[in-house]
Amino acid sequence: MTKNLLTLILTFLFTDALAQYNQGARLKAMANASAAVNDVWSLNANPAGITGLKSSMVALNYARYLFGDELSEQSFAFVHPFGNNFAGLSINRYGISEFNEIKAGFCFAKKFGDDLAIGVKANIHQIKITNYGNATTFSVDAGVNYSLSKQIGLGVFVNNPSSQKYKATNVETYIPAAVHFGASYTPSNKVLLAINVSKDLERKFDVALGVDYKFYELLSLRGGLSAKPFKQYFGIGLNYQKWILDIAVESHPQIGYTPQIGLSYAL
Amino acid sequence: MRFRFIIITAFLLIGFSATAQTQEDQLIKDLIESIAENLPEDYDLSELQDRLTYYRKHPINLNNTNAEELKTLIFLSPLQISNLFEHIRKNGKLIDLLELQSIAEFDLQTIQRLIPFATLDQTAMADKITATNLTKYGNNDLIIRYGKVLEKTKGYTDLPGSRYLGTPDRYLLRYRYTYANRISASLVFEKDAGEHLFNGPKQKPFDFMSGHLAILNTGRFKKIVLGDYTMQFGQALTLWSGFAFGKSPDVTGVVKRDVGLRPYTSANEFSFLRGIATTILITKNIDFSPFVSHRKLDASLSTNIDGEQTLSTINETGLHRTQTEINNKNSTEQIVYGGVLQYRNNALNIGAIAYHTSFNRLFVPGSSLYQHFNFTGKELANVGAHYSYTYKNFYFFGEFGKGIDAGLAYVNGALVSLSSTVSAVVLHRNYQKNYHNFFNQATAEASEAFNEKGLYAGLNINPSKVWSIQFYGDYFKFPWLRFRVDAPSDGYEFLGQVTYSPSKTFKAILRFKSEIKQQNTNLTVPFNYLDDVKKENYRAEVKWVVGKSLGFQNRVEIVQFKKGNANSEFGYLAYQDVSYSPLSSRISGNIRVSYFNTASYDSRIYAYEDDVLYNFTFGLYNGKGIRGYANLKYRLAKKLDVWGRYALYNYENVETVGSGLDEIQGKMKSEMRVQLRYQF
Fold this sequence. Notes:
The structure holds 2 protein chains of 2 kinds.
Chain A: H1 2-17, H2 24-29, E1 57-64, E2 72-82, E3 85-95, E4 99-112, E5 116-129, E6 133-147, E7 152-159, E8 178-188, E9 191-200, E10 205-214, E11 219-226, E12 231-240, E13 243-252, E14 256-266
Antiparallel strand pairs in A: 1-2, 1-14, 2-3, 3-4, 4-5, 5-6, 6-7, 7-8, 8-9, 9-10, 10-11, 11-12, 12-13, 13-14
Chain B: H1 2-14, H2 23-37, H3 46-57, E1 60-61, H4 67-71, H5 78-91, H6 108-114, E2 118-119, H7 131-137, E3 139-149, E4 169-179, E5 183-191, E6 208-218, E7 221-232, E8 260-263, E9 273-281, E10 286-297, E11 302-303, E12 309-311, H8 323-328, E13 332-344, E14 348-363, E15 377-391, E16 394-403, E17 408-417, E18 422-431, E19 452-461, E20 467-478, E21 489-503, E22 506-520, E23 530-546, E24 550-563, E25 569-580, E26 587-598, E27 605-609, E28 617-621, E29 624-637, E30 640-651, E31 656-657, E32 664-665, E33 668-679
Parallel strand pairs in B: 1-2, 12-14
Antiparallel strand pairs in B: 3-4, 3-33, 4-5, 5-6, 6-7, 7-8, 7-9, 9-10, 10-13, 11-12, 13-14, 14-15, 15-16, 16-17, 17-18, 18-19, 19-20, 20-21, 21-22, 22-23, 23-24, 24-25, 25-26, 26-29, 27-28, 29-30, 30-33, 31-32
Helix pairs in contact in B: 2-3
């Protein structure tokens, strides 16, 4: 009974707090205003965004939910470019030892000239509840990035457009089906502003706004806001040669602070 | 009606005589208007208008000024001011005002705004204080204003109980004298509607009198002010009397522009100190501002079981119209004394404040639970420390304030110029529920800065000359109960604004603001629970100029208000402004016609209105009807200007306008105002 209750709470929190899968500490610090932003973690956002990478990259991310003793989210991402083609792999795990939700996906993206990029990703989702059972399903993400000018970029992507659900009838966990429109503005090579308008099929419009400011070559400062619910985000990034260390904190009016940390290495 | 007719006739008769320029004030008017547009609601900018008018005549010498003086030009950001001094320090004195373009952060708009108030000329004018100089080079500015609501309100009828004892006329007389940057003096007399004009009870001879004499820049004494003055330091958390900007579409508004000690020349009856204050230079970088003030304040008194007279709040309206208001007048004495020590160098500014406030009556908290942590007693000591520090393109600022035997409050923030087109502001605040301070104007969601925690972040983006975009978001939490909020609560506010101005003669603005707070439910329940209160404002505005003298402005604003599960209610306002200000004519004027329709007071709308010089009006549009006004300025002689204003509300489907003693039979409320200014 307690287990069931716990599962219920986690599921609820999952759908409420994590309408999107983890996009890494950099994009998180920018309020996930990621539709028109390039990052290795675009794998979990706009798949076309991975085409911004110059070389192969591998990344790990860890998020900790402070209201639970052991509730956390781990993510892994890997992207490899072949000329104008990019391949990526991501794995996400969320939960506690008795409750796990796993999303793993394979992504393919392609650049068409300098201004246009398209990406598609296939995901497999699995929920495992100890002594209760498993459920599995599949979903697709797809996205486009377009550079309007050197300073302004546009992006759009969809998650799970066919509204796939878990096959098992006793699992109510929802796989987000949403469309996201975004724009980015890069007034100088130190500053990136990004805005996202998202519409989840089951929710109201959400607007998110993020800033990434490369204060020094080594250090980036980030911040963001999103509207529904009203959340604030802060983060820093440290770039040292091929290593990138990102830290982000999300502040939710009810859930409180959620910190996360990510480490990336350019191969 | 008759008044309007006279205006029109006057317009026709004398509209063509063209000799003197009337443009002088147009610039300030535009500037004030653009600042006012960015204010959320009812603020009084008359003091700012006064300052700008002064600097228009006596421009600031940029090669010989200080941060305190430049901060009075509200449109300059602290980062710009800091960069200007850095530029002068590195490159020597400015040779040409065009040099401003080469200073980081100085965009075209800022320079255009600054130039009318700035100069590089060393004033040749003698500034020694001698009798000859004082008479020969002194500037005198005299304002006489009269205004009246034309309809008779209930308060002036022969009521048995509470009624207005004076006359419905409003008078203002203000005389101001300045001599270079050495001497300043002023005298203000004011009578509000409903008050006695001459020698009424508790007044000799006028209801409100204010004045000051200030001697400036005399040796080590930077400022000496005798009479009425304001003190504005740090981030307004510890010691700040008078008006302070807060959250506004100009996202840098949350960074306070502390201008220190200033003489007081406004007609607001509350927001000042009265006594003597000075700022003394101790060394080149350190100054000290001791002050002492003694004031009589208005408060409703009660008697406690020990027979002692007590109060719980000070009344700030300055109205003394009814017997009760007259009884409350000057019922409480306040003595404040203390000092501010400040250290300044190019990048760093730190200050320490300590002062003591005492009253001759006993403060008791109100009986409601939300007032539980309010100030009690007769005496309060406050200390505070503030700082600002410029590092490259970062401007850090903050302040800590503490009431002795009371709570702690602090605010910290940074203004960052991310690139030439993007700047960001972040401000964190934490004001304890028992933070007591009588001179606290720090940035807050509530009208007073205590019992609040919050985080504010704003962005200002100017991707090109044509576009300008502002955003801010603010999350706030009230750890203790508030008026009409019977539990700890929180909320947030979000604003976005886009301005498009493809040419000098056209400008369009779109604004969206959304705010969610919590408030007691309207339902009758044993224990009040909180309902979300959501208010959203949508505004669209265009402004354009035809030829050289005709300007047009249109605005549509919609307010949506929703509380709990009740249905949304809406309010809307649409107006048309036309202004006429020919370059070389004695006459200028403007009119507004607006239609408004709001479901209730909750969905009311505020809009800035043009008025006679130095009078500042925010129109309150509530109910359903038409609002119109006409302003006219005429230059009678070189030094003599006259203003006239007629404004009216014409409500639909009502029997009376206003409430209580201000109730008017019928559906009209109209007001006229005449003002004369003589400069000599």
